[in-house]
Structures are given as C-alpha cells and as structure tokens.
Design goal:
The complex is a heterodimer of chains A (385) and B (86). Chain A has 385 residues and is α/β, with parallel strands linked by helices. Chain A has 13 helices and 15 strands. The chains are: A alpha/beta (385), B alpha+beta (86).
C-alpha cells in the first residue's frame, strides 16, 4: 500500500513488520524518530517486543548482544557519535556472529560537532565485520531492512548488518513508500530460530577466548562469511523482487552505463541528484553514467570492475575521508577493484558535514574528471583556508 | 577440530587450556609443616588446589601457573617455590 511518509517513520514501520523481539537504542539526531516510533509501537501494543531503555549507545548495543545471543531477533539504530560509542560492541557482536540489525541515519563525526549528513560514521566501521547496505531513497531504506534480517540470520552467515541511509536527507524527508503488509513480510522473513543460544538449561558461552593459535582462524571465518554473504544477498534480493516487485539482487546498479564515457560512482541519496544531472547532461549530448553501490560490505569488487570495464574515466564521490590517505574509502576500494586497468579513477571528497551537493556540482565534477583533475576535496570554500 | 562459529563454547571448555605450561616456579607443598588451614585453596586464582582424603592440600600441576600466591600467603611457610627445569 502506497503511503506518503517520512523516511524514519517508514523505517520504523519496516522494523515493526520484521517482528523484532528486543529493541534497545538511545536517541540521537537524526535517528530519533525511528526509535521514538518503535517505543510507541511497543507501548501501544502494535509491536510485541521488549524495548530496553538504556543510558547510552554502548549499553544499547550491549543489550542487543545479550538478547541476540539468547535467541531473539534484535534491533537498534544510531548514528555518528552514538555509533562511535558502540565501537567495541560492534566488533564483539560480529565476532560472536550475532545477526543484529542496526539502522544508521548517516551523520558526520565530531569534532567539530555536526548533526548533518555524511557517511563517516558507518564507513569508519567498515572493518568491524558488519554487513553494510546503503540506501538511495526511503523505499530502498525500508526494503533493505527485510533483506538485511534475511541475510544476517542465514545460518551460513550469522553476521550483524548496518542499513545505512542519509541523515535528514532521507530520514526527515517525506516520500511515497510502498508499505508491505504483515502477511507479506511473514512470508518473506521466517521466525528467527538459531541453532545455538544462551539457555540456562543447556549452557553455552559466546565469544570466548582465543589464543594466538586460534585467533587468526576466527577472523578468517568471518571474512569467509562476508564473502559467502554475496551469494546469500543476491538470492534474498531476488526473492524479495519476485514477491514484491523490487529486485535487490544486484550489489551495484547502473544508470545509462552502457555507452557512458564518464562514469560517476556513488552511494546513498546523492545517487538521485547524480541521475538528474545525468539526464540533463545526456540531453546536452554528454555520455555520462552512474554506478551506484548498494552493498559496501561485502565489497563487490568484481561487479564494479565489470561494470566499469567500458568506461573511459571514472569519478568516485565519497562522503567520507580517510584522513591522510589518497581520499575516501570508496575511491580507494574502487581503484583496487580496477587494478590493472588503464582507466583513470579519480576521487572527490564532497558533501561532508551536510554540505549541499546539487546537479551543477555533479556537472562540474564530470568536467574536472574529463580534464584529469581529481583526488581532491570538491567544493572547498577557498576564502576560509 | 574445527572452530565453533562465534567462538561459542560449552561449559568446561577452559579445562582444555592446560595453563601449567606457563609455570616458571613450581609450588612444593610440605605436609609436615601444613596446618590444613586451607588459605592456599581459598586464595588460588586458578582454583587448582584441592583437598585430599587426609585434609591436606595439593595443586593440580596441569593448571597451576606458578603465581606463588599460595606460598606467599601460607601462614606456616609450608609452600616453597622451586624453579622448574623443562
């Protein structure tokens, strides 16, 4: 059923439909509306779950770790400094192989304090073992939650997942959303019933101690699960498509890619702006295309290399910066995926801390890329530095 | 042996980790001096000191790390730490 609704409300509704048994979160802008809604659902009986109120994000995710280990479907949501406070717990959740789903309403990292959007928060946890999905719009943001649970809880995977969507740009924007019914979701997402869980009658411990003789192999197994998740995500995305008409089997999506000379690579809501800019550039005879990355972990290197094989030049847009390196996380990994190719890959760090990116900016980046200028911040206010 | 997913373990798993190999100094218990007070058993951080049928105390050397707390705390100085040759 189509509804005009705010991104956060739509995500909260999607989470409700996933029937989490335990929700624990701490409110933080711009994630707040999601957890307010879920607390309301629990209070008014629309969601049969324990809502555990806590004093901070470290405790929120820790509560989820315990609940998930006890065999519950578990949910949290956060952003920015809240996610930073969860850093340790994120690694533990992944290492214990607990399929917790957490929405990230992407926001810049302080200091300086910024409540506005970029992707530095979740990107900074790329090595934690969590699967990472990035949504372009609110329909995708809601749909990815169903897929995330399905993939994370697969017995072969058993990894937690972030569903990331841009703070404010998506979380506070009203869009038409196809809201699924409980019957539809129940058919897609079966009850969570893990083979191993905390049970006083049959005791077990999670995430025990590994000496140097064992630790390396545990990390290897997690990496294998990430790689195995590619197949599982493709299947879960395809099944979702066959049931509800929106196919998420692809890790990357092309827009006017086939004959594109300049290809922009991006994640998240900026892809909408890029598509509009491409339409205008195409109308003016410019062969420009977009490669949107939806799944950042596991990173779809092969798919990216294949999709970019015909491009003459590539411009990667990063709403994050690995300070002191050659740029944002995406360009570094895209360049690695393209290793051996002579196609120039240029990176542009942009939109940090909520700086607005418009169609004219996308066109300017294409022009820069054509001139071979890149691997730089885009849109710096020169008068300030 | 294959790894347990998520390093999950059934109770008693730490018994597989025979920490006696960490030991440099080995506690030697002298039953002649022992007053059977049980301080050594109470304070052993490894929990490896057991009472025998005659109410004397002895460590399980498979797990004793040689920390020496028992020897330090023994009111009768009945425990001597001897360097072990391996």
């Amino acid at each position: 059923m189509m509804e005009i609704t705010e991104g956060s409300h739509a995500v909260a509704e999607a989470v409700r439909l996933c029937r989490p048994q335990v929700v624990s979160a701490y409110p933080i802008t711009p994630q707040t509306h999601i957890v307010e809604d879920l607390a309301g659902f629990v209070a008014n009986g629309r969601l049969d779950a324990e809502y555990i109120t806590v004093e901070n994000e470290f405790s929120a995710l820790s509560a989820c770790v315990g609940a998930s280990a006890a065999g519950s479907r578990t949910y949290s949501a956060t952003t920015s400094q809240g996610l930073a406070l969860m850093f340790e717990v994120c690694f533990n959740a992944a290492g214990m192989r607990l399929p917790i789903i957490m929405s990230i309403a992407n926001r810049a990292m302080g200091a300086p304090l910024s409540i506005w959007n970029d992707m530095q928060d979740s990107i900074s946890l790329r090595d934690s073992g969590w699967l990472q999905f990035y949504a372009e719009d609110n329909q995708e943001a809601t749909d990815l939650h169903f897929i995330a649970y399905k993939v994370a809880e697969n017995p072969k995977i058993q990894l937690p997942a972030f569903v990331c969507f841009d703070g404010f740009i998506l979380s506070h924007t009203y869009e038409p959303i196809d809201v699924l019914s409980q019957e539809q979701v129940d058919k897609y997402l079966p009850q969570y019933n893990p083979a191993e869980k905390l049970d006083a009658k049959d005791p077990i411990s999670f995430g025990m101690y590994a000496t140097p003789e064992y630790y390396l192999e545990f990390r290897y197994e997690m990496d294998q699960a990430q790689k195995l998740a590619k197949d599982v995500i493709a299947k879960a995305g395809k099944e979702f498509g066959s049931m509800f008409g929106r196919d998420y089997s692809a890790f990357v999506e092309g827009y006017h890619l086939d004959d594109a000379e300049t290809v922009l690579v991006a994640m998240g809501s900026i892809c909408g702006t890029v598509k509009d800019a491409i339409d205008e550039m195409r109308a003016a005879g410019k062969k420009v295309g977009l490669l949107k990355i939806r799944v950042f972990r596991p990173f779809p290197s092969d798919e990216i290399a294949k999709a970019l094989s015909k491009a003459k030049r590539v411009a990667v847009l990063d709403k994050n910066i690995s300070l002191g390196s050659k740029g944002g996380a995406t360009v570094i990994e895209v360049r690695d995926a393209m290793y051996g190719s002579t196609t120039p890959v240029k990176g542009y760090v942009l939109g940090l801390g909520g700086r607005d990116i418009r169609k004219k900016d996308i066109k300017e980046i294409v022009a820069l890329c054509e001139k071979g200028i890149g691997d730089q911040f885009y849109g710096l206010r020169k008068e300030l530095i | 042996m294959t790894l347990a997913v998520g390093c999950r373990a059934r109770p008693g798993k730490s018994r597989d980790n025979r920490t006696g190999s960490w030991r440099v100094f080995k506690p030697i218990f002298d039953h002649e001096k022992c007053s059977k007070c049980g301080m050594c058993q109470t304070l052993c951080p490894e929990g490896c000191i057991h009472e025998d049928a005659e109410e004397f105390f002895d460590p399980d050397y498979a797990y004793c790390k040689g920390c020496g707390i028992c020897a330090t705390e023994c009111p009768k100085e009945a425990i001597a730490m001897k360097q072990e040759e391996k």
